[in-house]
């Protein structure tokens, strides 16, 4: 009985997907949800880990379905991820927000000219690259995304003629 209720509850999630759009995706979703329900009912060693990993996969699959089917997902940084070059630039910015990015350095990383990169980034993301970098840094400030060295460098903390007694960040290594 518990198994039936568990499967019915989980499988109800599949009702929100349009089978006409992607029957294969719907079947894959149902199979994954059945496996999760079986793991939950059997209480086998490692079952919680399996359920957690399958949940991660379901989130990725749901995002993919949304990206494929919702016109709103075609704009902004999330939509830009679908472009091979601009998507790579967005990923680089997200991965290393503390890096001293410039339009030239981003364009160089993805093998585009500066002008083509700047125009395409703005077109796909909806704002210029450097404004996006600045906004992303603001969102990640205080999170673990910026390594300590990047935070220290970002603050320009170091010896200077104005502050000769302050240690340089190199002495902290």
Structure explained in plain terms:
This protein is mainly alpha-helical. The protein has two domains: 2-72, no CATH class; 76-141, Orthogonal Bundle (Arc Repressor Mutant, subunit A), CATH 1.10.10.60. Helix content is 62%, strand content 0%. The protein has nine helices and no strands. The protein has helices spanning 2-11, 23-42, 47-69, 76-80, 84-95, 103-109, 114-125, 129-140, 148-154. Helix 1 packs antiparallel against helix 2, helix 2 (23-42) packs antiparallel against helix 3 and helix 6 crosses helix 7 (114-125). The model is unreliable at 1-13 and 144-173 (pLDDT under 50).
| Helix-strand makeup class | mainly alpha
| Helix-strand pattern | HHHHHHHHH
Shape summary: elongated
Residue stretches low in confidence (pLDDT < 50, at least 5 long) are 1-13, 144-173
Largest sheet: none
* Rounded radius of gyration (Å): 23 Å
Portion of residues in beta strands equals under 5%
Distance between the termini: 60 Å
> How many β-strands, per DSSP?
0
Mean pLDDT score? 75
What is the overall number of helices? 9
- State the share of residues found in helices, binned by percent: 55-70%
Number of domains: 2
Condensed summary:
The protein is mainly α and 173 residues long. 62% of the residues lie in helices and 0% in strands.
Keywords:
single chain; 173 residues; mainly alpha; 2 domains; 62% helix; elongated; disordered C terminus
Q: Would you spell out the secondary-structure blueprint of this structure?
A:
Blueprint: H1 2-11, H2 23-42, H3 47-69, H4 76-80, H5 84-95, H6 103-109, H7 114-125, H8 129-140, H9 148-154
Helix pairs in contact: 1-2, 2-3, 6-7
